[in-house]
UniProtKB/TrEMBL annotation:
Database matches in Pfam families: mTERF (PF02536)
Keywords linked to the UniProt accession: Transcription, Transcription regulation, Transcription termination, Transit peptide
Name used for this protein in its record: Mitochondrial transcription termination factor family protein
Membership in a protein family: Belongs to the mTERF family.
GO biological process: DNA-templated transcription termination
Recorded superkingdom: Eukaryota
GO molecular function: nucleic acid binding
Length: 382
């Protein structure tokens, strides 16, 4: 039996050449009349780019499927909407159930809903290629009421761009209108309203579809870091703790303390910039070493200005430091600038004020500033 099964696996899947083998201990994976299902498997393989094993798995999940008629109708329907073949295949991979969904009764009204929101043609195809599982939701009971709620939160959302951003990130926000409304009310009770609520929805939509207990736990963690609901930074703290585990937060606080900062100083830094905790261990450590040991800033300076530790050392901080050092050595400046102020300048202002203005030395200064980018093949192609 083993050798026969091995032989069968090598046979091409075709309705012209089929053997169905049964043993007393197993049932055939195809029906006793395999031709229609073989045609279905063949269609899934050729049109939707599934492997034969994936196609067989799909039809086993949907035992009522007997022929390729419905998948063919779905393919043509999506194609007529402007989907590329790649988007059609991705849509089916994310949501195989679409292959056996009634086009006229179910798919047409749901797709019209998204078209009316502004998603058409290839944009609709790209969205559904990653988010087609959203189609599992009832149009009238879930999609319409939930989207109405989301649109009220998303301020000045031209062409519903932010709405589609939210749905692309986590379309579970439309699964329960009651949960969505409840979580919004809870967040508003924590002082997160208006533009802050809108920004939180865009950045972390999963918070809006979390279980109530999970959301309250995140709020408690933000409180434990020293934030109160009347702080304008509370929403940033909530977002930060939603991205990190307690272990990661403690590890980064320990790293700050290793540079001599007290617990109170660490809390002061976090209150000024909660996102500091989202800075990687490596970047945080390198930043601390550079500002404290190379630039020789006083330790308390970073307590009041922790955001400097979040700037890119490689692309911003160190290149600007090199430029200022060259200018100091050549005495090009009448008054030595505050290095921290130069770090905060926009790219255009820095180039104008500290490079372009000094024409006789501009080339040397520019090489000092951009040389690391010229040496990097990755950055040459970006």
């Amino acid at each position: 039996m083993q050798s026969l099964n091995s032989y069968l696996r090598k046979l091409p899947l075709s309705s012209k050449n089929i053997l169905v083998v049964c043993s007393p201990f197993s049932s055939p994976s195809l029906s006793s009349n395999p031709e229609p299902k073989l045609a279905l498997i063949d269609y899934l393989v050729t049109s939707f780019n599934f492997s034969e094993s994936q196609a067989l798995s799909i039809i086993n999940r949907f035992p009522r499927a007997k022929s390729p008629d419905n998948p063919r109708a779905v393919f043509l329907f999506l194609q007529n909407l402007g989907f590329s073949t790649a988007d059609i295949q991705s849509t089916a991979r994310v949501f195989p159930q679409i292959l056996f969904t009634n086009v006229e009764k179910t798919l047409t009204p749901k797709f019209k809903f998204f078209q009316d929101l502004g998603l058409v043609g290839s944009d609709l195809g790209k969205f559904m290629s990653k988010s087609s599982s959203i189609l599992t939701n009832s149009l009238d009971k879930k999609l319409v009421p939930s989207v109405d709620i989301l649109k009220k939160i998303l301020l000045n959302d031209e062409n519903n761009a932010a709405l589609f951003q939210v749905l692309s990130r986590d379309n579970r926000v439309v699964q329960s209108e009651s949960k969505l409304s409840s979580n919004i009310a809870f967040l508003e009770s924590c002082g997160i309203v208006g533009s802050q609520l809108s920004q939180l929805l865009k950045r972390q939509p999963r918070l809006f579809c979390s279980a109530e207990s999970s959301l309250k736990d995140l709020v408690s963690r933000a409180f434990n870091l020293g934030f109160s609901v009347d702080s304008r930074m509370f929403v940033h703290a909530l977002y930060t703790v939603s991205c990190l585990s307690d272990a990661t937060i403690e590890r980064r606080l320990k790293l700050l303390r290793s540079f001599g900062y007290s617990g109170d100083e660490c809390m002061e830094m976090l209150k000024a910039a909660p996102a500091l905790l989202r800075t990687s261990d490596k970047k945080l450590k390198q930043g601390m070493k550079f500002f404290l040991f190379t630039v020789k800033l006083k330790k308390e300076v970073l307590v009041g200005r922790p955001s400097f530790l979040m700037y890119s050392l490689e692309d911003r901080v160190i290149p600007r430091y090199r430029v200022i050092q060259i200018m100091k050595s050549k005495r090009l400046l009448k008054k030595e600038p505050s290095f921290l102020r130069t770090v905060k300048l926009t790219e255009d202002v820095f180039l104008e004020k500290y490079i372009s203005k000094f024409r006789d030395h501009a080339e040397e200064l520019l090489v000092a500033y951009k040389g690391h980018m010229l040496d990097s093949p990755e950055k040459q192609g970006s």
